[in-house]
Amino acid sequence: MLALIFIVTTIMTIYIKILLLHTWMQIARCDLYNSFSQLIIKISSPIVNPFRRIFNYHGSLDLVSIFIAYIISVLLVPIILKLVSFETVFFYLGLVILLKSFGVLIFWVIIGRSLTSCFSQGNSNAVDYILLQLTEPIMIPIRRIVPPTGGIDFSVMILIGILYILNFIGIEYIPGWMYF
After folding, report:
1. From the CB of residue 132, how many other CB atoms can be counted at a distance below 10 Å?
2. What range does the domain containing 85 cover?
């Protein structure tokens, strides 16, 4: 039974991150004809497109993907807590899972960009290009305050430090943050 719970929670968590990444790519105005972007769009489309027809929303921010990610987060709570009954507190805990998932997504995209920039050595591919488009809007304000010194860009370390601080603030002040 624990293996089944692990598989279901892993699939749901990955899908939440894919939906959030889809929205983030639209906000960052990434190249949607890129092969990596097309992969994210094709994975998220089977669930998102029927809801787009129902809600008939055509704004620049993909609220339908965020809404579906929130619903999946709410459905994930009783699975993680191994509960059979549904309670109203799950709506709050679903929001906690969604916020924490976005922070984790930012963390791993930053780490991915750092690793690919070390190993690509000038050969850019689809993933490098998307990671660059996703992270540059976040890192540019940090680079204005702390410019690269001696060929070392400290913006990645500062951003990861900020994410860690936000995580510790969440643990201390947001009920349920630590458990998800």
Report:
1. 16
2. 1-173
Which pLDDT does position 57 carry in this prediction? 67
Buried b vs exposed e over 44-55: b needs ≥16 C-beta within 10 Å?
Answer: beebbeeebeee
- Residues 39, 37: Cα–Cα separation, whole Å: 5
pLDDT, tens only, 13-62: 999 999 999 999 989 988 888 899 999 999 999 998 888 888 776 666 78
User: How far is the C-alpha of 154 from the C-alpha of 61, rounded, in Å?
Assistant: 30
Is 137 part of any domain?
yes
Distance, in Å, from the CA atom of 156 to the CA atom of 84, rounded to the nearest integer, reads 42
Judge whether 180 lies within some domain.
no
Q: Is 179 among the domain residues?
A: no
Q: Residue 74 half-sphere exposure, CB side, CA atoms within 13 Å? A: 12
pTM: 0.89
